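Weekly sync, protein design subgroup
Attendees: M.S., D.O., the rotation student, P.L. (late)

Item 1: inverse folding check
M.S. brought a backbone from last month's batch and wanted to see whether the design step gives back something sensible before we order anything. D.O. pointed out we never logged the input encoding, so this time it goes straight into the notes. Structure tokens as presented (226 positions):
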């Protein structure tokens, strides 16, 4: 009986709750346009007003790490994106990231920036989202995470207004983000900020940032599985 309990606990410790695993083009970040396997974990402690993946807040399926690796391998991909929800809300996200790197994939992690990233494998490209006031979750930013940024990482701002843009510029300067991370991404919030207007602001201020448009919204209009 003791052996059975130990085996059961060990098995539970090697699982994650997964909303979906699918193969598509990366819609954003520095690998935009490249075929990528997305592993979407279930659950998120934040409620950003522009969230387009609320379906990942709950539900999902309990899957072992071994099964996740097998499903990913079936696509024969080069790039893997672990996303959510908020992936780091599940502790077993950390060993999953390491195992994906060990398997030879180029791995990125999309995280809200509200949870500690210090344990994330250094081989993973962290895409750290700094929440603007317009997100309705600015108070959740964990600025200690900035200390863990490297050239392999990316910082993302979703801009909801001119006020958000000015706030993002102030954080860019305050934390010297262009020097800390490999990429700083400014993305217009869908249907809230005109992409051309954001482009004009960036050019006018000569910012060391990349304008990011979400290809999946342009190509597939947020259809599931893309």
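Designed sequence read out in the meeting:
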């Amino acid at each position: 009986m003791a052996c059975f309990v130990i085996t059961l606990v060990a098995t539970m410790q090697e699982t994650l709750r997964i909303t979906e695993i699918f193969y598509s083009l990366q819609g954003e970040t520095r690998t935009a346009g490249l075929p990528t396997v997305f592993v979407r974990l279930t659950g998120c402690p934040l409620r950003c007003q522009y969230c387009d993946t609320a379906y990942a807040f709950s539900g999902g399926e309990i899957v072992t790490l071994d099964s996740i690796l097998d499903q990913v391998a079936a696509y024969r991909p080069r790039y893997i994106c672990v996303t959510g929800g908020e992936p780091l809300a599940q502790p077993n996200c950390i060993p999953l990231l390491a195992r994906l790197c060990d398997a030879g994939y180029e791995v990125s992690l999309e995280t809200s920036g509200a949870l500690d990233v210090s344990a994330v494998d250094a081989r993973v490209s962290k895409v750290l989202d700094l929440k603007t006031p317009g997100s309705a979750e600015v108070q959740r930013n964990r600025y200690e995470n900035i200390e863990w940024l490297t050239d392999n990482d990316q910082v993302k701002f979703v801009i909801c207004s001119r006020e958000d843009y000015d706030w993002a510029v102030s954080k860019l300067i305050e934390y010297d983000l262009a020097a800390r991370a490999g990429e700083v991404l400014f993305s217009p919030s869908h249907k809230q900020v005109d992409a051309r207007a954001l482009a004009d602001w960036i050019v006018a201020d000569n910012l060391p940032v990349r304008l990011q448009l979400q290809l999946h919204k342009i190509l597939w209009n947020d259809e599931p599985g893309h």
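Discussion: Strands lie at 15-25, 35-41, 61-64, 79-83, 106-111, 125-129, 154-159, 183-188, 210-211. Confidence is low (pLDDT under 50) at residues 2-11.
Action: P.L. to compare against the previous round before Friday.
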